[in-house]
Amino acid sequence: xxxxxxxxxxxxxxxxxxxxxxxxxxxxxxxxxxxxxxxxxxxxxxxxxxxxxxxxxxxxxxxxxxxxxxxxxxxxxxxxxxxxxxxxxxxxxxxxxxxxxxxxxxxxxxxxxxxxxxxxxxxxxxxxxxxxxxxxxxxxxxxxxxxxxxxxxxxxxxxxxxxxxxxxxxxxxxxxxxxxxxxxxxxxxxxxxxxxxxxxxxxxxxxxxxxxxxxxxxxxxxxxxxxxxxxxxxxxxxxxxxxxxxxxxxxxxxxxxxxxxxxxxxxxxxxxxxxxxxxxxxxxxxxxxxxxxxxxxxxxxxxxxxxxxxxxxxxxxxxxxxxxxxxxxxxxxxxxxxxxxxxxxxxxxxxxxx
Length: 354
Prior knowledge:
Layout: E1 2-3, H1 7-20, E2 28-29, H2 32-42, E3 46-50, H3 58-68, E4 73-79, H4 82-93, E5 98-102, H5 106-111, H6 113-131, E6 163-168, H7 172-183, E7 191-196, H8 202-214, E8 218-219, E9 232-234, E10 240-246, E11 249-255, H9 267-277, E12 282-286, H10 295-303, E13 307-311, H11 321-327, E14 333-335, H12 337-348
Domain Response regulatory: 1-117
Subcellular location: Cytoplasm
EC number: 3.1.1.61, 3.5.1.44
């Protein structure tokens, strides 16, 4: 299902999807009201939903679409502005799966092979996650549930971690926010660094959203900034976030080096630097997302004596990134989303959030 106020965009998306041979377009809509009506009539597997539409925009239409068709995965599309980034993150927190920024103009949209490839890639990953069959083997992974139902990670670490390094992509904003919220006061005992695959503007809005929701300091770091305990740092969109030792201190390293596995920021960069400079003082967490970014970094972290937690398949929107780490045998533990925060909290200390 395609919902966009531009007839040109609707036609373009429909043609791309048809030519791919992987999708069947059941309907198109030019406004939010029509999108809701189509959702109730067709119950599509996926809806591509534009944020900016007449009568009822995507923000207002989303909850009603989900109510009409709960199993429909909603992929947002929008032009890249600070306002739209904030609105898209609100939608993701309310159930949208992911967001894809559009080129600034129609000619850019028509001519952008990268945008077409990214759109089809995201839709394919969403489709695979919705129709996967069976469970992938979790070789090399351990999960030790206590009677309380909280996994005991203490046997997996040699020292108490003081740095939490997180990698996530599709479905990540909501999942990461859940883990950070579940950590509660334990965040004060950690320096937290996050690579969330997002374009510029979106990552700054994501950091602001975390700070507002949790009441903790969260922002994009600047290059060379000394990393402080109790802070949450989010990699700037389109730039790598790494770690370096500078004048005896641990500092952020922001760079424009080439993408790694087509990703910038890349989880592999952050994890590799954490292994080099932090060793077992780091705790890796790889969460929902498409692709395999983070697998090489997780391997490096494990070799340096650090533990790596992978989100389980059932609770992941897309089990690409964590699944890749699990299949590589580099997950110290595989945990459901609801169990990750409590497990880390028992490891690093901190009261249960109210």
